[in-house]
From TrEMBL:
It comes from Parafrankia irregularis. SUPFAM superfamilies: RmlC-like cupins (SSF51182). CDD domains: cupin_pirin_C, cupin_pirin_N. Binds 1 Fe cation per subunit. This is Pirin. Residues 202-309 form the Pirin C-terminal domain.
Length: 322
């Protein structure tokens, strides 16, 4: 898992828990079912079994892979529309290419994040590059859908490319945990992601047997999703493992502990910490559209069919076939 790493002994340190800090309890743990997305790449549905109230403003989340493709097997998505939210694609292993109808695009690889605000409407494609399709190889990432409040649903589309080296890196007080802050503020350290909706997105690696306490905004909700390995969450050491999401209650810190032994393919506990200030608005979803009313969904479909969400550019990126 080569997403950006560092020597934790040389990094800035998070603060240790204070006397008045409240550790967030685990309210429930759910296991993500598996499925397929796009042209057929495997995913785990991170938020299945988690109510919208518990994950607001996140409306959808997929762990893509981890899969080691044979030559000719890598797949992505064809050109498709979005409206009303933001897509966040974080690549841990492998490479994805992105292009959209608003001029955004590029390679996403090994710790980089593509942050696309669909807003009023956009067309885009995400597909493995020709070299990866021809050779095969490891592919592992995460895609999140972050809702926009009604006032921002029709904001202009925007694209952010966040390279791996731009992510804020901090360590736990004893150096046993590496915290990568992609967006939001964690204990006074801020990630580079610019968001319409107030959220925090963090990838944390915990060494076997180590424990990490991460400061967390008490106004935000909190989810812990296990990308790899096994360990525990919360003061009562609730067990979690690959593909599980822990829904946390109120408080201002999230505690994690890695099991003393991990398997050879997964040397550490790898988790995604997610949270945000709930929007608390009605959500209506249909395919690639996230709106507030069914009438707005119908309008989005009509606008897409009429070409008002964008046009596929000339010489556009297309999926590579072998």
């Amino acid at each position: 898992m080569p997403a950006v790493t560092a020597d934790t002994l040389t990094l800035p340190r998070l603060s240790a828990p204070g006397l008045g800090d409240v550790e967030r309890p685990v309210r429930k743990v759910v296991t993500a079912p598996t499925g397929f997305e796009g042209e057929g790449f495997p995913v785990r549905r991170m938020f299945a079994g988690v109510s919208l109230a518990d994950r607001d403003p996140f409306v959808h989340g997929d762990q893509m892979g981890e899969v080691d493709y044979a030559a000719g097997e890598p797949k992505g998505t064809p050109w498709h529309p979005h409206r009303g939210f933001e897509t966040v694609t974080y690549m841990i292993d492998g490479t994805f290419q992105h292009q959209d109808s608003h001029g955004g695009g590029g390679l996403i690889t090994d710790g980089a994040t593509q942050w696309m605000t669909a807003g009023s409407g956009i067309l885009h494609i995400e597909t493995p590059p020709e070299a990866l399709v021809v050779s095969g190889g490891l592919f592992h990432g995460v895609q999140l859908w972050v809702n926009l409040p009604a006032k921002d649903k029709f904001s202009p589309p925007r694209y952010q490319s966040i390279e791996g080296e731009q992510v804020s890196l901090v360590a736990s007080p004893d150096g046993g945990g590496l915290v990568r802050i992609i967006a939001g503020d964690v204990g006074g350290f801020r990630g580079p992601g610019s968001t319409h909706t107030a959220i925090t997105v963090v990838h944390t690696t915990v060494s076997p047997g180590a424990r990490v306490s991460v400061p967390w905004n008490p106004e935000y909700n909190a989810l812990v999703y296990v990308l790899a390995g096994e360990g525990t969450v919360g003061a009562k050491d609730t067990p979690v493992q690959l593909g599980q999401t822990a829904v946390l209650g109120a408080g201002d810190r999230i505690s994690l502990a890695a099991g003393p032994r991990q398997d050879g393919d997964t040397p550490n506990l790898e988790v995604l910490l997610l949270g945000g200030r709930p929007i608390r608005e009605r959500v209506e979803m249909y395919g690639p559209f996230v709106m507030n009313t069914r009438a707005e969904l119908q309008q989005a479909i009509e606008d897409y069919q009429a070409g008002r969400l964008g046009v596929i550019p000339e010489n556009a990126l297309m999926p590579h076939r072998v």
